[in-house]
Structure formats: structure tokens, C-alpha cells
């Protein structure tokens, strides 16, 4: 195994784990603040999610994030995390535009995260360190 391949593998591991750590608070929030999750779904996605539904969404996201973090079924887990985060990013574009009253610079952090998720999806076959085949 060449030095370049080893470095690439280590970089992808760091990318995968840092993306998982970035997304973890939103997963935990679905359990610790289910009312907030229901409000977010209503405000951004126009979906009336019952508070109990927050727990269902939380379990699904927790399982998906765990699969993502350990590199299980990479095409599916990396792809779903990328697409779901991408959809969330699209739904929050009004919060990213500085000339609107809805602007909140914290939402801009979603853009480089989406870039990292896209890069990880593209390079998923090279991401082999600490993964489950």
C-alpha cells in the first residue's frame, strides 16, 4: 500500500468521523427536545410532525448516522446522509442570504459540510479504515 493511499484513507476517516460528530447534536436533539424537532419540521419542511414522531425520526437518524460513522453499506448510508443534509440545506437557503431578514450566519456552516459529504460519497470506495463491509 502506497503512502498516498494510506494518507487518503486517514483523511477520509477524519472526514467521516468529523461529519458524524457535526451531525450528532441534531440527532440527539430529536430525543432531548422533541418539541423543538416538531417545530423545525413545521417551520422548514411544512410537515406537522407529532412530538412522538420526533422520536421515530430520531431512531431512524441515529441508525443512519451509526451506519455512516462505521462505514456500513457506504453507498446507501453515505448517500442518504448526503441527500438528507442536502435537502435540509436547500430548505434553509433563506437563512443563508445576508440581505434577507431571515439571515443567520450559523446556517452557512451547512454548505462546507455538504461539500465534505459529497467528497466522502465520491471517494467512498477508498474509505476503508475502521469501516464495516
Helical residues, percent: 55-70%
Average per-residue pLDDT, rounded, comes to: 96
In percent, how much strand structure appears in the residues?
under 5%
Backbone CA Rg: 16 Å
- The count of helical stretches stands at 5
- Reading the helices and strands in chain order gives HHHHH
Helix-and-strand structural type: mainly alpha
Number of domains: 1
**What overall geometry do the principal axes of the alpha carbons give?**
globular
Low-confidence stretches: none
Biggest β-sheet, characterized?
none
Please report the total strand number as a whole number: 0
- Amino- and carboxy-terminal Cα gap: 19 Å
Please describe what this structure looks like.
By secondary structure, the protein is mostly helical. It has helices at residues 3-32, 34-45, 51-69, 74-91, 110-122. 69% of the residues lie in helices and 0% in strands. It contains five helices and no strands. The two termini are 19 Å apart.
Question: How is this structure best summarized?
Answer:
The protein has five helices and no strands. By secondary structure, it is mainly alpha-helical. The longest helix has 30 residues.
